Here is the input.
Amino acid sequence: MDLLRVKWLRRLLKSAWAPLAVQVALLVAFALLVWGGLGVDADDEVAGLARYTNLANLLVWCCWFPLVIVGAVVLGRVWCAVCPMELATTVASRIGLRRPVPGFLKSGWAITILYGAAAIVGVYTLGVHRVPHRMAVYLVALLALALTVGLVFERRAFCSHVCPVGHLLGLYAHCSVLQWRAADASICNACEGKDCVAKSRRLGIRRRSCTSGLYPPAIQDNRDCLLCTQCLKVCPSDNLRLTVGAPWSDLRRPLGLTGAQLAFLAIVSGFVIFEVLSEWEPSLRALEWLPYLVADAFGLTGPAADLAAAGVMFVLLPAALFLAVAGGVRLAARTPVFDGAKAFALLLLPTVTGAQVVKAILKTTGHLPYWKVALADPAGVESARAIQAGTLAFDPSLPGWLTAAITVVVAMILVVALIVTVRLAQTSPWTARLPRAARPALVAAAAAYWAIFAVTIVLWRL
Ligand code: SF4
Ligand code: SF4
Here is the structure.
């Protein structure tokens, strides 16, 4: 089913103001969120509450981020299409130096390192999600980075080679039901101007060729396309389609994965475990036990211990897991270590995606009671103090029926993730290429990873 056959949608997406108008509106919203978080700092105990009573912080971490994740899983990189950073970096690159993107950025390692640093330093050690002021500084730093990269490099180098959020959404977009492709490759072959990739059309703001460097008839999967619709606006033959297909169809094709992308996925697999297990105090304590034991062994305390523990949790443990599985596969079937690690990474993708959606659901629904307080006092510090002092009556618990409904939905998502994993192990081209003897070890390791989430949810919710 081609959604571009729906006349009003085609007209809307062809309009020069889509998605520009939404990006401008979101840039204003972005400025308001920064303003709402700046200066809202508090001592540790109040900050624990203020992260939910501050309206800007609540909007960013319990509304925007979960929606962006779920949006990517269902619809692909729709957020990237309307992201205000894309607008900022595009405008900057129009007036900037337009230098070619260097090999290091193109290799993907910059994104992997930035993502690892954001998880270890930004989230775990500094708690950018816990303190509204830090959230605001983090957003401003992101905007500054988008502008700087835009001023130096050509095209949208920030979106393609620097932004870790975009890369993460690209991974989750493999599950999406939407696919942006050329409608008829023979029309593209005969097309003389090739406006969709023409260098002369790169500098437009409202209509331009693809500044992600994609040639529509060559697009094989959802990872890199931002769904920005620019190629549709300039194509003289209207030769694009937006089809609704089966979810996970990307993963039924041979899928390339570089070393940097493999490392990125390994860090994501570790970070997602932390994301879900941190929702329940006993599972968080169990998860942090070994990393802090390591930090203690080196005599580290305070933020240094947090940094080391995060490094163990998000980098060393996932790396050890990937190496152990790839080594086991090599012993069982004499497969190159990289092939085994790559197949394992792709087999983890359904569980990683499912767990991230679970986290999004828990984050969004778990803090519903705070909206009333945050809307009444957007800064949120006074409310947090009053709640803590007991002078403001506040019950953070959810109705029993909602808690039960969330548990059922979460369980269903995890079951679907397991089914998809098993199906992929049986049918995907990248596991089919491995010897049969390698598959049981891979499936067992992927199932063990899945079991971490399943056991936690069962123990916690039931
Ligand atoms: S997408 Fe349009 S502009 Fe690009 S090659 Fe095909 S027909 Fe030409
Ligand atoms: S292929 Fe088209 S929709 Fe996708 S990023 Fe390029 S211009 Fe945007």
